[in-house]
Amino acid sequence: MGKINETNKKQQFNWFALAIILLPNLIISLNTYMLQVALPQIQLDVDATFTQAQYILSAYSLGLSALLIIGGRLGDLFGQKKLLVLGLVGFLLASISGALTSSPDVLIFIRLIQGGFAACIQPQVLVLMRQEFKEDDQPLVFGIYGVVIGLGFTFGLMFGGIIMSANIMGLGWRNIFLFNIPCCLLVLIGMKKLDIKTKLVSVKDSSKFDWWSVGLLVPSILLVINSLYQIQTGAFYLELLLILLGSVGIVLFFKIERIRKIQHKSVVVDTELFKNTYYNKGLFTVFFTYVAMFSLFFIITYYAQYGLSKTVGGTSLIFLTLGLGFIFSSLASSHLLAVVGKSILLVGCVGMIVSLASLSFSILVMPNLLSPLNATLLFLYGGFLGATTTPLVGIVLQKVSVKTLGIGGAFINTVMYLANVIGVCVAGLLFQYFLKASLDNASLKDYQHAFSLSLWVISCYLVVATIGCNMMLSKSKLN
């Protein structure tokens, strides 16, 4: 009886640990979307230009994507719990600083730093979920992880609007930064109760950390991603040249890492990870799945606010329809995975393609995205999206060795943020081209036509993702 009680107590403690580990991931996700609804007011209050306002929003993703790989490696070296605590403390201080500043340039810098500390947090979450839970529990654990992501994008815009409307103490948009303080403190208090002592590389090796390679990788990633954001604003060929330059830096980094590995020196990225063809095909699948997702989110926002003249609240309701489908399927994903197996990824991709193809025809007849038919199709798309993305990360990481688990998780998240940047850039260019008029001068018919054609492009991304799923689930060479 004593052993049974002890087992139950341990199981309850593990679920408590999951709640504490996943809360910072929810904070990171919410901060990606909450600030967007407040951006016009921030621009006015801090006297920022339109370009500065864009950077206030995007600097967070820039910091995240540039440092995720480093955050994953540092977690492997010094322990995931230490890096998680460090990231939370840094994120907390950056949030306080963001609430106090009135300079647009300082706010951009703070958002970049905030994203950097978020990059210390996110890779550790994936590793700790793998290490702290039994293999039988992991489908449910990663299902909850998917729900957290769904909550972030479903309620991020709405929650940002609620905070702005509440205007506590007359602080307006600053409350979005201050909201992070109690959340971070709650997690830090909870972390003290967690008995997590993971360290995958010896302290001796950590003293030989290759900071020179980091100095090459981070600026190269920043250069590529920043140029992708800027490519729509003009100077196309210059930005293309900078993307090429940054790409050369990234390729050079991996060549240096391969040489250091052969020489038995400490490396930032263990290139053994990419000998796992299963993992490589998983990255391919993740990229195209998320390019499709972020592209759709982007064109929904523009179609709703410019084509349908929806308010921020009305646009949020559209995302809520999609998000509810995502959350329901995420909650059921562990059961679906047990019944259907990994083929759930193929079912989800095909379901998304059918939903979007149907919506592309429906939107030409019925422009309102909240009409019964269109809302149902968005709900179904969200359901198939949840059925795909919720188990996807866990399935990709399933066959990654423990020694490369942290960096493997970091690469997945980096690919997701790159998919965000590339998806939005391409969707913006194509949507404008399909529109054949400026945003202010285009008619509703123009918007319907552009939205419908954009859905077909997104469906093509999902066809490629389906091919990636099929390749991944076929026999692959494992590390």
Explain what you see.
The chain is mostly helical. The chain folds into 3 domains: 1-197 and 204-209, MFS general substrate transporter like domains (Growth Hormone, Chain: A), CATH 1.20.1250.20; 210-251; 269-479, MFS general substrate transporter like domains (Growth Hormone, Chain: A, Up-down Bundle). Helix content is 81%, strand content 0%. The protein has 16 helices and no strands. The chain has helices at residues 2-45, 50-78, 80-100, 104-132, 138-166, 174-178, 180-191, 203-206, 211-230, 236-262, 277-307, 312-340, 344-365, 372-397, 405-435, 444-473. It is globular, with a radius of gyration of 22 Å. It starts with a helix and ends in a 6-residue tail after the last helix.
Keywords, please?
479 residues; mainly alpha; Growth Hormone, Chain: A; 3 domains; 81% helix; transmembrane helix; MFS; membrane; transport
CATH fourth-tier homologous superfamily of the largest domain: MFS general substrate transporter like domains
**Got a strand count?**
0
Distance linking N and C termini: 42 Å
**Poorly predicted regions:** 9-13, 199-204
Helix/sheet category: mainly alpha
Give a quick account of the main beta sheet: strands, pairing sense, barrel closure.
none
CATH-level-2 architecture of the largest domain: Up-down Bundle
The whole-number mean of residue pLDDT values reads 80
CATH class membership of the largest domain? Mainly Alpha
* Total domain modules: 3
Radius of gyration: 22 Å
Report the principal-axis shape: globular
